[in-house]
Design goal:
Elements: E1 12-13, E2 18-19, E3 21-29, H1 38-54, E4 58-65, E5 68-75, H2 81-99, H3 101-107, E6 114-122, H4 128-136
Antiparallel strand pairs: 1-2, 3-5, 3-6, 4-5
Helix pairs in contact: 1-2, 2-3
């Protein structure tokens, strides 16, 4: 049997819904401290990919600088965005502090890793290629 051609590859279907939801998220480190190393960013991306999978979402794009991260997430309508964000920030903070404790303590203190605020932008009105290009063009820190 030949593979079926799909005219809308980004569209997902559920039992009672057809959807194509994407969000651009930006998380900033507490006090905008330049706490990330390349190794930490690689691990952060892995952790955030796992969290997205747990929510039946997909991390489509990840990029970062030393003091913030950009994510492009494809998520189902049953996911409450604030809960996804809380999980992404909470799990990544906990794991990065556990695995890079001595480094993180030099830059961040008081049990905080991320700033309490975040940016969430709907990507419905912009072609995803534009958002991907923007995220890809963010500077990656050099160690």
């Amino acid at each position: 049997m030949s593979p079926r051609w799909d005219p809308n590859p980004g569209v997902r279907t559920g039992r009672h819904v057809v959807h194509n939801l994407h969000v651009h998220l930006v998380f900033v480190t507490k006090y905008r401290r330049k706490a990330f190393t390349d190794a930490m960013l690689t691990r952060c991306e892995e952790v955030m990919r796992e969290v997205c999978t747990d929510f039946e979402a997909e991390l489509k794009q990840f990029n970062a600088e030393q003091d913030h991260v950009h994510l492009l997430v494809h998520y189902p309508p049953k996911v409450q965005l604030s809960k996804l964000v809380n999980s992404l920030k909470g799990v990544s903070s906990r794991r990065l502090r556990q695995e890079y404790d001595s480094h993180v303590r030099r830059y961040l203190w008081g049990g905080h890793f991320w700033s309490g605020s975040y940016f969430a932008g709907s990507c419905g009105g912009v072609p995803l290629a534009v958002v991907r290009q923007y995220i890809d063009n963010q500077q990656r820190p050099t160690s």
